[in-house]
Every structure is written in structure tokens, then in C-alpha cells.
Design goal:
Blueprint: H1 2-10, H2 18-25, H3 29-42, H4 60-73, H5 77-84, H6 88-106, H7 116-128
């Protein structure tokens, strides 16, 4: 499964293009790779391990891919077994681990209330797209 995943998305001359990757993963490949590096540095769960028989466990790429697919597509954990060969309990554990890590690693940069600089950038971007005044009701939150 790991070799197939790498051949399809991550190796040079992979089956899927950058555009395919972005559509399927809902992010650019370099963003995925940064996320992967960051979670591996913080949590050993996302590092490659071997079982007692010396066989490799699920790779970090597999674990992050499964969790992201579950979040992006609302995939059920038991349906992942058919495509990624990962049991329901492992999928759920992986999803929980990744969600906790995303909050831990990125909360200060991305999971915060926007500052004035952020708001100005978002207002300009929205106005350029024809949505003036949109910030006042973003996600039903009303910022001054």
C-alpha cells in the first residue's frame, strides 16, 4: 500500500500531477510534506516503526493521507480498510492523533482570531472577488 501511495502521489514522475494532488488532497504537495515533517517532529506516532516480526508498520505518508482523506471527504473509518488496508480502529486513532497535533502545532499561526493585518488582507481579497463587507459575518462571528 505504501509503495502504491508513493508511486501515485509522491515519487518523481508520479502517476498523478500536481493539479491532481491538489484536487484529491485539497492542498498542495509541499503543504502536505510540511505537515508531514511537522507532525513527525512532534509525535513519534507518525514516524516509521517496525513490528516484532521486523515488518514495517503503516508509513507516515499512509497515516497522514488516511486522516486527511477522512477529514476532507467525510470518509468512514471502516471504508478506509478497502482502499488503504488500515483497520477502523487504526484509522480512528490516526485521525485523533493528527487532529490533536494540528491544533498543537498550528494554533498560534492559523487557529486564532485574526489580527488587524489579517483582516485587512482578507477584506482586500474579498473585495477583489466582489464580496465587500463579508468579514462582518464570516462564520457568524462579528469582529469590529
Amino acid at each position: 500500500m505504501h509503495a502504491n501511495l508513493m508511486n501515485n502521489y509522491f515519487n518523481p514522475n508520479s502517476v498523478y500531477t500536481e493539479e491532481d494532488f491538489r484536487r484529491l488532497f485539497r492542498m498542495r504537495r509541499h503543504v502536505f510534506e510540511r505537515l508531514l515533517r511537522n507532525v513527525q517532529q512532534v509525535n513519534p506516532y507518525f514516524r516509521q516503526k517496525w513490528d516484532r516480526a521486523g515488518r514495517p508498520d503503516f508509513s507516515p505518508h499512509q497515516k497522514v493521507t488516511v486522516a486527511l482523506r477522512m477529514m476532507a471527504y467525510g470518509s468512514l473509518a471502516d471504508s478506509i480498510d478497502e482502499t488503504h488496508g488500515m483497520s477502523e480502529s487504526t484509522c480512528l486513532d490516526t485521525l485523533e492523533q493528527l487532529c490533536d497535533l494540528i491544533v498543537q502545532v498550528y494554533k498560534d499561526d492559523y487557529l486564532r482570531e485574526p489580527n488587524q493585518e489579517d483582516l485587512n488582507r482578507l477584506i482586500r481579497k474579498a473585495e477583489n472577488r466582489g464580496f465587500s463587507g463579508i468579514i462582518g459575518s464570516l462564520d457568524c462571528m462579528h469582529w469590529d
